[in-house]
Amino acid sequence: MSQADINAVIEQFRMAAHRSLQAGFDGIELHAAHGHLLHQFLSPLSNQRTDTYGGSLENRVRLIQEVLGAIRTEVGINYPVQLRVSASDFADGGLTPAEVALALTYLESELDAVHVSSGGLVPAAPLATPEGYQTPYAAVIKQYVKIPVIAVGNIRTQTFANFILADEIADMIAIGRPLLEDASFGEKMLSLA
Ligand SMILES: Cc1cc2nc3c(=O)[nH]c(=O)nc-3n(C[C@H](O)[C@H](O)[C@H](O)COP(=O)(O)O)c2cc1C
């Protein structure tokens, strides 16, 4: 991508934030995980650039910083903006939870929360995906940042979700497949509270 291409992408994110506000959404999750473009810039596996967007962590995080800055010019400081990250590329030379945590220290002043997922950049996966398989990555990141950390990934019971919160492994829980399987999953959890 040329600098002009990069500028165009930043502008497109700004316009998307504008449309999000117009559409009445309550917040934005900026996707820097799962192999999407912002993840490709962040990971040394995919970012082979030799300009100010490549090489050091400070450079690889720059596009996310600039996109966040553009989003904030649209939505202001009081509108929730969180970032989804892949905490591991599951490959030698790829992102690790500690490096992603360091990257977040450059970004957290513009963020309300970080949502910790993993993988998706290269065809590599964790050996297993047991209950809470990504929660340890959230725990590492929580050691480095002050913003709320969201854990996700095979969290299916209220007991386990409460354990994550009570032990301060993460600050919030995201769920995906349980809601596809049972649209009233959230209500059922609340009724158990
Ligand atoms: C059918 C399906 C589609 C998904 N699509 C996306 C997606 O577009 N973007 C994304 O960030 N995650 C996506 N995910 C991943 C979920 O956001 C979530 O991280 C993952 O399912 C693990 O959480 P869970 O065990 O509660 O389902 C998808 C998951 C499923 C099952």
Descriptive account of the structure:
Helix content is 45%, strand content 12%. It is an alpha/beta fold. The chain has a single domain (3-192), classed as Aldolase class I (TIM Barrel), CATH 3.20.20.70. Helix 1 runs parallel beside helix 4 and helix 5 (97-107) crosses helix 6 (135-144). The protein is globular, with a radius of gyration of 17 Å. Bound molecules: flavin mononucleotide (FMN). Residues 31, 34, 84, 117, 152-155, 175-178 line the site of flavin mononucleotide.
Short description:
The protein has 193 residues and is of the alpha/beta class.
Task: Break the fold down into its secondary structure elements and pairings.
Elements: H1 3-22, E1 28-32, H2 37-42, H3 57-60, H4 62-75, E2 81-86, H5 97-107, E3 113-117, H6 135-144, E4 149-152, H7 158-166, E5 172-174, H8 177-181, H9 185-192
Parallel strand pairs: 1-2, 2-3, 3-4, 4-5
Helix pairs in contact: 1-4, 5-6
The structure holds flavin mononucleotide.
Residues 31, 34, 84, 117, 152-155, 175-178 line the site of flavin mononucleotide (FMN).
